[in-house]
Amino acid sequence: MISIIQRVTQAKVSVNGSDIGVIGTGIMALVAVEKADTAKQADRLLERILNYRIFADTDDKMNLSLRDIQGGLLLVPQFTLAANTETGNRPSFAAAAPPEMGRELFAYLQKRALEAYPSSQFGEFGADMKVALINDGPVTFTLRCQEK
Fold it and tell me: Under DSSP, is residue 80 helix (H, G, I), strand (E, B) or coil?
């Protein structure tokens, strides 16, 4: 699984003009599922997102996690992150999970996120979403959890 996480002061995702996920200070994470991914990768990715230390402590060092600051979490499915962009002028989505597999694994991630971090919010798999955010810093990281 691949995720782009962004430290935000606010973020929201809308579908058909209605806000379906809104957070204040926290992490907005774009998430892609690849063909070889399993629930094990989803669990590992969630733990990394929740525990990744990207928030400033009292010494202004990135030493605090989302759990430490009790911030918001907004998970947004985005299959285009799985694209191969190394050659040519058009991305290849050969590594991306088929839609049903992606939907199933993102639903699993949602369920696990709500169990581990009840204030989690979500985008909608397969929907035409509008995402708005204010990136704080900016602070942005790529997290990847693959089978070893």
Answer: helix
- Beta-bridge partner residues of 45: none
Q: Which burial class, exposed, middle or buried, applies to 86 when counting CB atoms under 10 A from its CB (0-12, 13-18, 19+)?
A: exposed
- Give per-residue pLDDT as tens, 8-32: 999 999 999 999 999 999 999 999 9
How many Å apart are CA 25 and CA 70, to the nearest integer? Answer: 9
Neighbours of 103 (CB within 10 A): 15
Rounded distance between C-alpha atoms, residue 115 and residue 94, angstroms: 32
Residue 116's CB is within 10 A of a number of other CB atoms, namely 15
pLDDT score for 146:
78
Residues annotated as catalytic are: 78-80
Instruction: Give the distance, in angstroms, between the CA of residue 5 and the centroid of all CA atoms in the same chain.
Output: 6
Query: Which bin fits 47, alpha (ψ -120 to 50), beta or left (φ > 0)?
Result: alpha
